[in-house]
Design brief:
The chain is α/β, with parallel strands linked by helices. Helix content is about 40%, strand content about 15%.
């Protein structure tokens, strides 16, 4: 069975996912653009560069580009022989053919993902969104069967509410699988979803936080400081521009000062802040060029001072 072994090689800098034995580097390569806005050749180049940088976790979903993202990653792992060097996270519940978290949707969705990924195990399987029609206990029972069958290693959830996560934790105390990772939007410009009760629950349940949109849709990176423009046809550009206000520009000013002192880019500083936060295991990053990726990975070696972290906390609160 080909699978990522968290204990192989140098694990310095790796972080544990919940209470599981899966340890990964602090940045995950988000693959939502593979097969959507990014052509196959460019996607393969970015995957190659990510591994060259020591990247060890690739984050995709069955619904990304209607499965094309998974297909791209699967063929890359086969052709490059990289399956034993990376952990793969994918998500079920939003693919048009297997919607929701029913027993059938999860089982058939996982089998379809395994086929596209050309592997026999998913290292981290996320429930992509809550399913109000299916009790979480039923979804967890299906996940238990998949874990027992060796098709899934670790279970996660994306955008789950606190009550549902609490119910899942109660169910896990009866022998059902734990949710060891939770993916929520989290950045210097969007702290409200996670902080407070969210972080407290994650800490109490020994659950890892896997932030996404850590650069606020690129507003703190490639689309920095964009002004709102309703005529923009690109959804990502509109989302980035929606962050434009006095508060976000105050955050950018502090980021600029810190980036200048470290001779780096504001995106690396913003990511380093996220990686310094409690419960964070790995933040998902998106890149549409190797040059973008080269800049983002520097966040893993950037150490912010106590004063710098305090200033970012203050201006972003």
């Amino acid at each position: 069975m080909a699978s990522f072994d968290a204990h192989d090689g140098d694990v310095r800098g790796r972080r544990r996912i919940g209470t599981s034995d899966l340890r990964v580097p602090p940045l995950a390569l988000g693959a939502s653009v593979f097969g959507w806005t990014l052509a196959r050749a460019a996607s393969l180049e970015i995957l190659d560069r990510f591994v060259e940088h020591g990247g060890g976790l690739i984050d995709t979903a069955a619904s990304y580009a209607s499965g094309m993202s998974e297909q791209t990653i699967g063929s890359w792992m086969r052709d490059r022989g990289t399956r034993d060097r990376v952990a793969v996270a994918t998500k079920v519940g939003r693919h048009a053919d297997f919607p929701g978290l029913s027993d059938r949707s999860i089982r058939e969705g996982v089998d379809a993902s395994l086929q596209r990924l050309q592997t026999d195990v998913i290292d981290l399987l996320y429930f992509h969104a809550e399913d109000p029609e299916v009790p979480i206990e039923e979804s967890l029972a299906t996940a238990a069967d998949l874990i027992d069958a060796g098709k899934v290693r670790v279970l996660g959830a994306t955008n789950f509410s606190l009550p549902t996560l609490l119910n899942a934790r109660i169910a896990a105390s009866t022998g059902l699988p734990r949710i060891d990772a939770v993916a929520w939007e989290y950045s210097l410009l969007r702290r409200d979803i996670v902080e407070g009760d969210g972080l407290e629950l994650l800490a109490d349940h020994e659950t890892s936080l896997m932030p996404y949109f850590a650069l606020a849709h690129g507003f703190l990176g490639v689309h920095r400081g964009m002004k709102p423009d309703v005529s923009q046809g690109d959804t990502r550009l509109r989302r980035a521009a929606a962050h434009a206000n006095r508060h976000s520009h105050a955050v950018l000013k502090v980021l600029d000062d810190i980036a200048l002192s470290h001779e780096t880019d504001v995106s690396a500083v913003a990511l380093a802040w996220v990686l310094s936060r409690p419960q964070v295991a790995a933040a998902a990053i998106g890149a549409e060029s190797c040059e973008q990726l080269d800049g983002l990975v520097t966040a893993t070696t950037l150490t912010l001072t106590h004063h710098e972290l305090t200033e970012l906390d203050r201006v972003s609160s």
